[in-house]
Amino acid sequence: MVSLFCFAPDRTLMAQARGPFAQHAPGSSRPALFICLEYVEHLLRMNRLRRTGAWVARPLLLPTRRIRWRIMAPYAVLSVLMGVAGTFIVTRLVTGSLEERFTNQLAEASRVTSDSVVRRERQHLAVVRSIAYTEGVAEAAALGSAGELKRLVEPVAANSATELVEVFDANGLRLWGGQLSGETALTYVPVEQSSTVHAQTLVGRVLSRGNDGAGDKFAALLPGPGEMALYTAGPVFDGSRLVGVILVGTRLSSFLPVAKGEALADVTIYGSGGTPVASTFPVAGDGGPEAVLAPDSGSAPAPGFREHRELFGRSYDLLYGQLQVRGEPIGLYSVALPTSYIASAGAAAQTQMALLFAGGTFAILMVGWALSRALTSPLLRLSRAARAVADGDLTARSGVRGRDEIGVLAATFDAMAERLQRQHLATLGALVSAIDARDPYTRGHSVRVGKLSAALGRGLGLPPSQLQHLEVGGYLHDIGKIGVRDHVLLKPGALTPEERKMIELHPKIGLAILAPVDLPREVTAIVGGHHERLNGTGYPLRLSAEELSIFPRIVAVADVYDALTTDRPYRRAMPTEEALRIIHREAMEGMLDIEVVARLRALLPQWEDRRRHDPALQGLMLPRPNAKVA
User: Fold this and answer.
1) I want to staple 535 with a disulfide (CB 3.0 to 4.6 A). Which of 192, 286, 565, 590 is the partner?
2) CB contact set of 164 (below 8 Å; sequence gap of 6+)
3) What is the residue-averaged pLDDT of the chain?
4) HSE-up (13 A, CA, CB side) for residue 58
5) What's the CA gap between 593 and 36, in Å, rounded?
6) Angle 177-182-185 (CA atoms, 0-180°, nearest 5)?
């Protein structure tokens, strides 16, 4: 029989099931096993949600975890708000200014178009006067001599590049008419009689000696040869007798491009009923200009009326005006400007302002970042140094200097860490000196190995934190000899194989002693591996070169050198040169690190001088049991 218990987080029993088809939970018709499984699934789902929420919340909580972000966060928020608000306000101002400029440009285009029509009519008047006052024209008109009129009129009209010119007699009959044969040619070809029949009304007004308020000349928009044209008519007098009429005209198809170039806007001319008769728009389709450009109202708009139109796939604003010549209305016109440039200019302004404010925001953030870095960098350095000391690196220093509160705090911390390091090393030195003092021949050995190892590491370019590991490891490398019996450790003669095995166990004993102590792995590597050799002949594990780091390699050289150059029960201390020859031979045989040996040879003069004069390297002298106390 299998029993299954499900408990809630408050350890109250949710359900109990015995066997796969056991009793149900109280108040439920479902097996308790299913209830337990559903509850477990619920807990797993909630755990996944919490993990997902932690991933989402971690970036949001970042500003609250770092002082630098706490300083920069207000800068960032205010800069973004100012950038958004500034971009919006400036864009609105720029867009409003563009709309005002657009309105002014539209009004200016309308005025320039009206002026262009007036100027063209004045050019017509000048041509009419020149022809009327040309000698022989009046007599030829009175006689009805078409050939003579052609000879006299053509040079005058060609001189001003007049497109259309006709001469009528006093009865309104056309005597001669010509039109330019091309845009660049200054020769005239005859104008058919039927193409100027609408001009009879204008000619009739001149022959009736009417007056338009500005004189005896008249202007109008009339159908010309193939299209609408702007005409001006004036009388020809022979003395005081009216003998004919001069009619000068310009096709709208040639005039409107000139007007567009002056107004910088598309121009459309409408008849008196509001019907488009000519335009600079590229009208396409079967409907012609009337179908596309006719006002939306269906009738002639009032002068000054403005409307928005979609023409040929683009948005335009059209401004209508009355076409007046010599003070009389002759039709309507409109000027059109595309409104897309307002949107594009507004978008460009918005982009420029956004880039400008983005640059300003970035500059502000960089200033905030620089300030926060200047404020928090000392704190971060102090924090890293404190974390390193907490992890066991007593050589770590903040290196922060300053007269402010942070500088004082950092200086106090550095002094504390330095004092702690000195006390730590002094305590270890005293401990190992006491251990070494058991054997008068090894007195000071561990301290010397630690100091020499640190000097070798410094010569090899190791950082201060690793130099401390070397020194501490050198101090503790023989701590396992505590577990070796004195009759073996202090035996003056040769050791038996069993005694040798006992001595070779001291690295393992040292590791066992230091196991409860939270020492860096570099130190424990020294304690356990300082008797290992690169060729695998060492003890206790016979490790190879690939398995030995630089730390036990350095301490091994320092240990061998100090052992060779101090007195032992079975021999006297060797001279420095002889010890170096032995060490070098072992390095060449692949037992010791050749680079460390070379560094030892380079620093031996300074080391030997220090060894002779530094009392700390002489070791602790314990009183003998039978010594008399004064």
Assistant:
1) 590
2) 177, 178, 179, 191, 224, 225, 229, 231, 247, 248, 249, 250, 251
3) 81
4) 6
5) 64
6) 95
**Residue 540: is the preceding peptide bond cis (ω within 30°)?**
yes
Reduce the secondary structure of 156-202 to three states and give it as a string.
HHHHCCCCEEEEEECCCCEEEEEEECCCCCCCEEECCHHHHHHHHHH
- Tens digit of each residue's pLDDT (9 = 90 or more) over 299-313: 677 888 888 888 888
Residue by residue, DSSP assigns 114-155 as HHHHHHHHHHHHHHHHHHHTSTTHHHHHHHT-HHHHHHHHHH
Spell out a b/e string for 9-43, using b for 16 or more CB atoms within 10 Å of the CB, else e: eeeeeebbbeeeebeebeeeeebbbebbeeeeeee
φ and ψ of 301, to 5 deg: -70, 155
Amino acid at 621: M
From the list 328, 329, 310, the residue with the least C-alpha distance to 318 is 310
Distance of alpha carbon 285 from alpha carbon 307, whole angstroms:
23
What does the block give as tokens for 244? 């004919």
How many C-beta atoms lie closer than 10 Å to residue 133's C-beta? 12
Q: Nearest 5°: phi and psi at 182?
A: -165, 175
| Phi, psi of 242, rounded to the nearest 5 degrees | -80, 115
Closest CA to 124 of 172, 156, 171: 156
H/E/C letters for each residue in 375-418? HHHHHHHHHHHHHHHHCCCCCCCCCCCCCCHHHHHHHHHHHHHH
- Positive or negative, the CA dihedral 349, 351, 355, 358 is positive
7-25 pLDDT tens trace = 444 444 444 444 443 444 4
Q: Which residue has the higher pLDDT, 266 or 2?
A: 266
pLDDT in tens, 367-426: 877 877 777 888 888 888 888 888 878 888 888 888 888 888 888 988 898 888 888 778
Instruction: State residue 2's pLDDT score.
Output: 39
Distance set, CA 321 to CA 112, 274, 277, 278, 300 (Å): 11, 11, 15, 15, 11
